[in-house]
Amino acid sequence: MAEKLSNREKLKIAPIPMAEQSPSARRGNIQEVPLGYTEAEALAEAQRCLICKNAPCVKGCPVSVDIPGFIELVAEGRFHEAAVRIKQTNCLPAVCGRVCPQEEQCQVVCMVAKSHKDTAQSVQVGKLERFVADWDREHHPTVEPLSVTKTGKRVAIVGAGPAGLTAAGDLIALGHDVTVFEALHRAGGVLVYGIPEFRLPKAIVDFEVDALRRQGVELKYNVAIGKSKSLEDLFAEGYDAVFVGTGAGLPMFKKIPGENLLGVYSANEYLTRANLMNAYGFPTESDTPILRGRNVVTFGGGNVAMDAARTALRLGAETSTILYRRSETEMPARIEEIHHAKEEGIDFRLLQDAIEILGSEDGWVTGCKCLRMELGEPDASGRRRPVPVAGSEFVIPADVVVVAIGNGPNPLVPRTTPQLQTNKWGNIVADPDTAKTTMRGVWAGGDIVLGAATVILAMGEGRKAAKSIHEYLTTGVW
């Protein structure tokens, strides 16, 4: 155990960087880019935490992880106890340590950063959470079943994404019987079909899902609620409550000419083929093909666009281009993901927008007709609105185009359940404090309510719903 330092001494320690694959190496493989902390690095980084009593970082965490508590345990070398502490409120710590935007949540309010007046100086909460989860998975791989008093109540969870899995974990720990219905053949939702292996290894998702199964959560795959069964069917089968966490998997398009050409993908299809269906290994290791373009252009500036553009490189593209109609300042992607994409050689075409996808006589993509843009006044999103520059048309070559400009809510459950109120975008309307919907006994949370958001926000929604469901099941009060 390291010697305890004064706060003044702690503030003199620089953040500990995490080793990564070199850009030249990782372009040619799908292995994870950051390599993780060693024990010595984790101990050194944990020493930087001031262990604040008011803990603004906890308030910044959507699932209220006891951040000072677990980091203090890391600093003392008590790694397993740190993992137990995290898992009291977060059932997916290895996932969150990798993909959660800590720089916008817990780390942005870190008192170390405030002392330096520099958010880059924050305690690296995400890296420490990842270390703890990885260390515990290696040294304590066996997850024991929970020993809780059963309530006799049954809860159906619709969708095995971050919101649904979190709700399942909290409810099983409270003694309820929990069944998760998943339309795909694998649990994880966006964690397995959307986020690439080089950002989130699927074996880690599988481990954390299996931990829930070992604790008693039942998982049923290939069941599309809203098609093969309705919510009313679930109540008829004896479930006392239902949580809907079906996400935002409906792809959006730009509605420009040429989007029906061969070689145009939604980011959902492109990433699902590569990730969930392992198209990287086609044809020797997988039956799922994917077009391996020489010149791939991706529309969009979020994390999904970065994932698609970086995936294209790993599929052998000679050029992979991001086409974004605003400047880098307005990009919604994480700074880390933009940085990694630049390192790998992604070509960023900023303040440019496609107005048409061009094709050959036989229907294949050949390029994108674009316009240069300039920024005007802010729009409803708070970002400056892109305004076309007259007479600035130009063409860039492309043989594959990936459209990554956002997703809409999964429509299956809302379309088949008229009792559920939805908003003008098709999202289920749910009480912001309890996640209750307009249908008695039904809660909803995650992207199906929020729209496309982050993994950790969806998990926070799942926790909030689980608390309300438990109150309903134990009191009978709606």
Strand and helix map with partners:
Blueprint: H1 7-10, H2 23-26, H3 39-46, H4 56-59, H5 67-75, H6 79-87, H7 93-99, H8 111-116, H9 125-139, E1 154-158, H10 162-173, E2 177-181, H11 190-193, H12 202-214, E3 218-220, H13 231-236, E4 241-244, E5 250-251, E6 264-266, H14 267-274, E7 295-299, H15 303-314, E8 319-324, H16 335-343, E9 347-350, E10 352-359, E11 365-378, E12 384-388, E13 394-397, E14 400-403, E15 407-408, H17 412-416, E16 442-444, H18 447-450, H19 455-475
Parallel strand pairs: 1-2, 1-4, 2-3, 4-16, 6-14, 7-8, 7-14, 8-9
Antiparallel strand pairs: 5-15, 10-11, 11-12, 11-13
Structural account:
The chain has 478 residues and is of the alpha/beta class. It has 3 domains: 133 residues, Orthogonal Bundle (Fumarate Reductase Iron-sulfur Protein, Chain B, domain 2), CATH 1.10.1060; 164 residues, 3-Layer(bba) Sandwich (FAD/NAD(P)-binding domain), CATH 3.50.50; 153 residues, FAD/NAD(P)-binding domain, CATH 3.50.50. 33% of the residues lie in helices and 16% in strands. It contains 19 helices and 16 strands. The strands form 4 sheets. It has a 5-stranded parallel β-sheet. Helix 15 links the parallel strand 7 and strand 8. Helix 5 crosses helix 9. The N and C termini lie far apart (50 Å). 47% of the residues are buried. The model has no long low-confidence stretch (mean pLDDT 96).
